[in-house]
Amino acid sequence: MAKKGKKYLEAAKLVDRSKAYPVAEAIELAKKTNYAKFDATVEVAFRLGVDPKKADQQIRGAVVLPNGTGKTQRVLVFAKGEKAKEAEAAGADYVGDSEYINKISQGWFEFDVIVATPDMMGEVGKLGRTLGPKGLMPNPKTGTVTFDVEKAVNEIKAGKVEYRLDKAGIIHVPIGKTSFEDAKLAENFNTIYDTMLKVKPAAAKGTYVKSVTVTTTMGPGVKVDPSTAAVK
Length: 232
Prior knowledge:
It is a single chain. By secondary structure, this protein is of the alpha/beta class. Helices cover 30% and strands 21% of the residues. It has 2 domains: 16-66 and 158-226, Ribulose 1,5 Bisphosphate Carboxylase/Oxygenase (2-Layer Sandwich), CATH 3.30.190.20; 73-156, Rossmann fold, CATH 3.40.50. The chain has helices at 6-12, 23-32, 81-90, 98-105, 121-124, 128-131, 149-158, 182-198, and strands at residues 41-48, 60-64, 75-78, 94-96, 113-116, 160-164, 170-177, 209-216, 222-224. The chain has a 4-stranded antiparallel beta sheet with strand order 7-1-8-9, covered by helices on one side. It has a 3-stranded parallel beta sheet with strand order 4-3-5, with helices on both faces. The protein has a two-stranded antiparallel ribbon with strand order 2-6. Strand 3, helix 3 (81-90) and strand 4 form a beta-alpha-beta unit. Helix 2 packs across helix 8 (182-198) and helix 3 (81-90) packs parallel to helix 7. The protein is globular. The mean pLDDT is 92.
């Protein structure tokens, strides 16, 4: 394991590792222990009681955070004709078809999210080996394969985040920046936690939410008591 720096160790002393903090307190503490000189990302990690190896316990989707993420996503849309015009009008950064497929195959990645109309997926699918490992492949579950390109672009620009269960049974989601007001981070946290409860697989047994942790890019993890979340 990599040796922790002096600043990290100083910050970690402020966190009681045996305690799960109320949401507001956890967010306040995560911000307080952030020693990065840049506007760090605040992230939440959910350790879930599901088996990532089983198809009926996969969790993947997307949710629009009420206060966005603090990052403007660059959107590439694969579409033709009227749908391409719709994407441009909605504010997509790049719109096209074969020319962008060629650019990506040659190593171009000046975008954060891809949206594709279903009729384009035959072509986009050829980039599977390139886009798949980077988590950039459009997917109907996250609303990025759709004919409603206007809605897809608007939601991404408004602060839509994708979530996906990893091999260790953990979901990592950004909920904003350290420059955000605590209340806005808490509202984003509550939205994503509420979503996690709603997407619980029917096949999941035992304790579903095992632990919830809030961290900043370089700061220590702060455990959250999920019972203090304001869920609908």
